[in-house]
Amino acid sequence: MKQAGVTVGAFYKHFKSRDELVVEALGTAFKDLDAWEKHAETLAQLLENYLTEYHRDNPGAGCAMGALLGDMSRASKSAKTVYTARVKHSLAVTAGLLPSEENADKRGRALLILTSLLGALNLSRAVSVPNLSREILDQVRQRLVDLTVGSATKARKKEAERSRFAIIAAVDSDCGRKIGAARNCGAAGPGAPRGNCST
Fold first, then answer.
1. Are 51 and 134 a contacting pair, CB within 8 Å?
2. CATH value at residue 99
3. Which terminal residue of the chain has fewer beta carbons within 10 Å of its beta carbon, N or C?
4. pTM, two decimal places
């Protein structure tokens, strides 16, 4: 505010209440998350970038959802409403990055991933032992990456298997038609007109 030439009193006059200021600040902070999520091409990339020591050590420049998580239980209803909207948005983004699987509960998996990210980040900041903090980040990140990559691999295998069965079915169907045609031609007898028996 000093750099902008604005006093604290003048700054607060722009807002009707402290709650209005908090809500406005949340909305602005979450815009940075929009840009961050938009540039994540894969879920594995998002996970690798989120659970890092740099992110842990720089909460002011990182994810506002993680930095403010502990405060939201005491926040006003309007602030919780903004935060809840952000949670829903991030769940949708995470679910959208998950590979499609038959009968898969993508929302359930997205919930698992989001809560694991926020929980691991905040726990890594809370503990006093550096090695434990690093272990929390590394282990949760690797487990989540393995989980999502494994799901993607399974999805690709299922798709390849469906394609293989479709090819086999098409070949069997074609062979069946040819065999049927040959039998019909044979049943007509050697002296009968052949018609379409060239197959």
1. no
2. 1.10.357.10
3. N
4. 0.67
Work out the number of other CB atoms within 10 angstroms of the CB of residue 109. 19
Q: Determine, yes or no, domain membership for 196.
A: no
* DSSP calls for 49-67: HHS-HHHHH-GGGS-HHHH
- CB atoms under 10 Å from CB of 33, counted, come to 18
For the chain, the domain total comes to 1
Burial classification of residue 50, based on how many CB atoms lie within 10 Å of its CB (0-12 exposed, 13-18 middle, 19 or more buried): buried
Cα dist from 102 to 96, 151, 152, whole Å:
15, 11, 12
193/195 Cα distance (integer angstroms): 6
What is the CA angle 173-177-180, rounded to 5? 135
pLDDT higher than threshold 70 for residue 92: yes
The per-residue b/e assignment along 71-82, b for 16 or more CB within 10 angstroms, e otherwise, is ebeebeeebeeb
Tokens 């959208």 belong to residue: 96
| pLDDT grade for 3, boundaries at 50, 70 and 90 | low
Residue 54 dihedral angles phi and psi, to the nearest 5°: -60, -45
What local confidence, expressed as pLDDT, does residue 86 receive? 94
Q: Is residue 8 domain-resident?
A: no
185 lies in some domain = no
- Report the C-alpha dihedral over residues 40, 44, 49, 52, rounded to 10 degrees: 170
